[in-house]
Write a structure and sequence with these properties.
By secondary structure, this protein is α+β, with helices and mostly antiparallel strands. Helices cover 25% and strands 28% of the residues. It is built from 3 helices and 8 strands, in the order βααββββββαβ. A hairpin with a 2-residue loop joins strand 4 and strand 5. The two termini are 20 Å apart.
Length: 165
């Protein structure tokens, strides 16, 4: 996948890749910003992404030698509710070679994901929660600007982006 080779992921492989992406996002968050321990505690307890985590794969054909990480802590709340004191969700876009992953995880309120589709519908392959078989790469590829737009799709009132190249 790092070299762009087509791949069919069985459920166990989806779990392995999704777990690796979530673990990588959690480590990045803990290294570079104040992090909510609940996210890591849930992952450490189960050793797999939680039920309030979604993971997709994307393809980045022009970034064969690039590696990027964009982690965003987010405060999510209902329209009529006050903004929470602490971040209660995060997203992470991780690319390595021609492979990219997108993670969204939340504690109590699910972030607004409606803007992901239809814009990225053909560019993302859902792997968590697991499906029967996921085929990678998706039909449409994402380029550097597409990865940036993907990271911005669930931005709400307050976010803290942390980007690494």
């Amino acid at each position: 996948m790092l070299r762009g080779q087509r791949r069919r992921l069985a459920p166990g492989e989806q779990l392995a890749v999704a777990s690796w992406l979530v673990k990588t996002a959690l480590v990045a968050r803990s290294q570079f910003e104040r992090s909510r321990p609940e996210f890591a505690a849930r992952f450490n307890e189960e050793r797999l992404p939680s039920s309030s985590t979604l993971v997709w794969l994307a393809s980045t054909p022009t970034m064969r030698h690039d590696h990027t990480l964009d982690v965003r802590s987010i405060r999510v709340h209902d329209e009529d509710a006050p903004e929470p004191d602490e971040h209660n969700a995060f997203s992470a876009t991780i690319s390595i070679g021609m492979f990219a992953g997108f993670v969204v995880s939340w504690l109590d309120n699910r972030p607004p994901l409606s803007r992901l589709f239809p814009v990225f519908e053909q560019s993302l392959v859902a792997i968590w929660p697991m499906g029967e078989n996921a085929v990678w790469p998706p039909r449409d590829h994402l380029y550097r600007s597409g990865l940036d737009r993907l990271a911005e799709t669930i931005v709400v009132a307050d976010e803290m982006p942390v980007e690494y190249d």
